[in-house]
Amino acid sequence: MRGDQLARQWRILRHIEASHNGLSVRDIMDLENTSRRTVYRDLEALQAAGFPLFTEKIEGQARWAFIDDYKFQVPQPFTTTELMSLYLYGDFIKVFKDTWYYDALESLFKKVRATLPRETLAYLDNVQSAFSVGIRPFKEYGKYREILNQLSKVLPRRERVEMIYQSLRSPKESLRKVDPYALRFLDGTIYLIGFCHLRGEVRTFVVDRIKMLKVTGAAFDLPKDFSLEEYTSRSFKVMQDELHTVKVRISPEWSRWVGEKIWHESQRMKKLPDGGLELAFEVAGLDEIKQWILSLGKEACVIAPGQLRDMVVREMQDSLERYSYALTDEDNAKEAKRHS
């Protein structure tokens, strides 16, 4: 209940801030579909928390608004609620702990805290206790602090880099000359997207597989026809490969859970007579979506393409074979006892 109350009060602040001439209690009642008593209680709580709200009568009707001369100064161009939203999203930066990104953002949040009055901070602490951001899995990027620092400097300057890189499937390291276009954060991993001179095409590199990086000082021009949004739109995650139309049937038991999410921008969904779902995607490569399908176990079945269906079947057969031969801890104990 406490979380619902805080969420409603937060929305009331947003409604008032977005209005030109303030809002009446009736306006807020209609927007939040709640009672007059609840609205008055929320407004009193927000005033007690230090928010600069006041009422004035316009055409015989009391309207609530922010005062023109705030009790505390908000750095422009931030609005009050934008600044507080920034404060509440502090959990996101934990992913970058021990990197310069974390240091810079932590400094920013300290300045936000110094800007807001004590009563408002107490209110936000209550909100934050009911609002949690979970990002898992994630990597410890403090070990790559210097590489991230160098990349952050060369990206806006459009400077070429040389790096020693080891891909996931190769046991050997290779020397790459790369024009860095952008950094991308996805599923707890930071990726570098850029033109690889060794391969002669735009490639995606995992930052924590960069063993060494050197800034060459040579400038490059970002191609006018390159769009980061377009480059990443076809990947199920990060893979770039041949485009495939994939169709997957989801069981009735899991249709609601799967159907509540957008797994890819190209996603099309069709409800089936038995209560299940049929999802269709246009994705580059099959390996990444194969892993997603396997994560759903028996609740997902590939309809097309046949190539993907065969890949999933082979993977399941290999897993079954491994389980058939693997001894459990209990089996190992029995075997050791028998030999002794």
From TrEMBL:
Residues 243-318 form the WCX domain. Residues 8-56 form the Helix-turn-helix type domain. Residues 146-215 form the WYL domain. It holds the Pfam family WYL. Transmembrane segments: none annotated. It comes from the Bacteria. PROSITE patterns: WYL. This is Helix-turn-helix type 11 domain protein. It comes from Desulfatibacillum aliphaticivorans.
